[in-house]
Design brief:
Blueprint lengths: L19 E2 L4 E5 L7 E5 L5 E2 L1 E9 L6 E7 L7 E5 L4 E6 L1 E7 L8 E8 L4 E6 L2 E2 L3 E2 L6 E2 L3 E4 L18 E9 L5 H9 L9 E2 L4 E5 L3 E4 L6
Antiparallel strand pairs: 1-18, 2-16, 2-19, 3-15, 3-18, 4-14, 5-10, 5-16, 6-7, 6-15, 7-8, 8-9, 10-11, 11-12, 11-13, 16-17
């Protein structure tokens, strides 16, 4: 018998800029204002959307305006933008602004946010921690074009770029999901109570590929409810 047993040492290194699959149980931490820190998310492909629901958890103490969710195409740099203001307003852009909601100011506590829109009636609704806002009308008859780029942490002034340090996100984002339809009220309430619920069919936090750049920390998320 050979007394020497070979030992194989495997070292796994995450390289910024490489693609990885899924962020289940993870949060993105953006510790400071930059013009080059972001996470690109690679969704399931779609040609166009006439309805969607976007949900995420976020916390920020930034006392200025910033992007929570940015999707840009060659047609519009704000093809789908969720914009947070310092005074608590959340605005939905579909090319241009279509609806603005007055909500409690963002703070250090993670909150669950969902925005649902459908084109036929132009109905827009925001949910915060499972509570529904009043419904507004905007973007009636519009659509969201496919083949663009989804970016977390920055607002795009061109597809995949044109970042402005003063509009960057500082804080924590997790549990980002997107569906190609408006969720039922009961579904939205259930998703707000746990970390995942039913994963999005366009963006699913647990399985969708992503790529990080700049100063973004990916940390374990202990906020999940079992």
């Amino acid at each position: 018998m050979n007394p020497f047993i070979p030992i194989v040492l495997v070292i796994c290194i995450y390289l910024s800029g490489s693609d990885s699959a899924g962020l289940e149980g993870k949060s993105l931490i953006f510790p400071e204002q930059t013009a080059n820190s972001y996470v690109r998310v690679f969704p399931s492909s779609f040609s166009s959307l006439t309805a969607f629901t976007v949900c995420l958890r976020a916390a920020s103490e930034a006392s200025r305006d910033y992007s929570l969710f940015s999707y840009a195409t060659s047609r519009h740099d704000n093809e789908l933008l969720i914009w947070q203001t310092a005074d608590g307003h959340i605005s939905l852009y579909l090319g241009g602004i279509v609806a603005k909601f007055s909500l409690p100011k963002m703070d250090a506590l993670l909150r669950h946010i969902c925005i649902a829109w459908e084109s036929k009636e132009g109905s827009v609704t925001v949910w915060v921690n499972g509570q529904r806002s009043l419904q507004k009308v905007g973007g009636k008859g519009q659509f969201v074009e496919g083949s663009g780029q989804f970016i977390l942490g920055q607002e795009q002034d061109s597809v995949g770029g044109g970042f402005d340090k003063g509009q960057s996100f500082v804080g924590e984002i997790t549990d980002v999901h997107m569906w190609d339809h408006v969720l039922e009220t009961s579904e939205t309430e259930l998703i707000s109570e746990g970390c995942f619920g039913t994963g999005g069919n366009i963006i699913n936090w647990g399985t969708t590929y992503y790529r990080s750049a700049g100063n973004v920390r990916i940390e374990d998320n202990n906020d999940c409810k079992v």
